[in-house]
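Example record

The entry below shows one chain as it appears in the dataset: sequence first, then structure tokens.
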Amino acid sequence: MRTAFGLTFDVPDGYLNTASIGVPPTGTVEAVAAAVATWGAGGARPTDFDADTDAGRESFAELIGVPADRIAIGATISQLVGIIAADLPDGARVLVAEDEFTSVSFPFAAQTDRGVQVDEVPLEAIPDKAADHDLVAVSVVQSADGRLVDLGALRDAVRGTPTRVLLDVTQAAGWLPMELDWVDHVVGTGYKWLLAPRGAAWLAQHPDAPAPRPNHANWYAGGGMSSIYGLPLRQAPGGRGLDLSPAWLAQVGAAASLRALAGLDLTRVRAHCAGLADQVRAELGVPAEGSAIVSVPGDDAARKLTDAGIACAARAGKARLSFHLYNTEADVDLVLRALRG
């Protein structure tokens, strides 16, 4: 059992795989277990989950620095990105980073029969090429290796242009401080750094961006029980009008974890997570990057780490390590011993 930032985690030594799946605080485990027990005893009602759904919505908004009324709930990144992709005009030009996580890029590539063109460029070139495109879609932190897009340069590049920006904060929200009220579309899922169950995701839709067609329109997005039968189409105002009907138990866990994370000083959290990661970078002889994700080269790096009992991931021919709240210098020592061995 480990305690970090006032939270308790039942996490084993050497767990460095948050970028694949986060370990929830014990309070989140208890909240979900209680909801399952109530459901199993026949005591659950659909409206019982509304408060948790709204709490998760509000905490996600706080974590990315936007008003809560912009936030729509969903289940996965690709489903939320797909809303934006399907609404692009025929012939639109989209810019993505090379080797971008495919839940960001594939929904746009699926529109090529309509003449939508998707261009890949190195991550560092995104700001320079942004104004030549109708929309830029990029992860704030790259899944494969932890590189960060230059948000300041991207914002400057699109200011005063019609270019829209979609950011995926899945590998950033929960450890990286962000103020993204200027972004047209922000998506993020909860089961990694936000330490929630899989099945909870969010979309922040800027009020000045074109409102996308609600191709998945449903009773919940209409405002709840008043919209369960009959026409005409009803949509709740703001982001709520793009809601997917919530995955209840995922929203229970999301409410607990995101509420805890939103109450932390994320500047301190980043210093902790990236500081541990930078200790590994120093051993590898590469500069500090301020990212919580480290990519370790070597064909046998993932095997060495796994054999030493370290939970990590193999990505793009390298071993990927990810440091979160619950990691300590003891985990760094495990990594360094494994790599030296």
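Notes for this example: The first strand starts at residue 2 and ends at 4. The chain has two domains: 2-24+265-340, 46-262.
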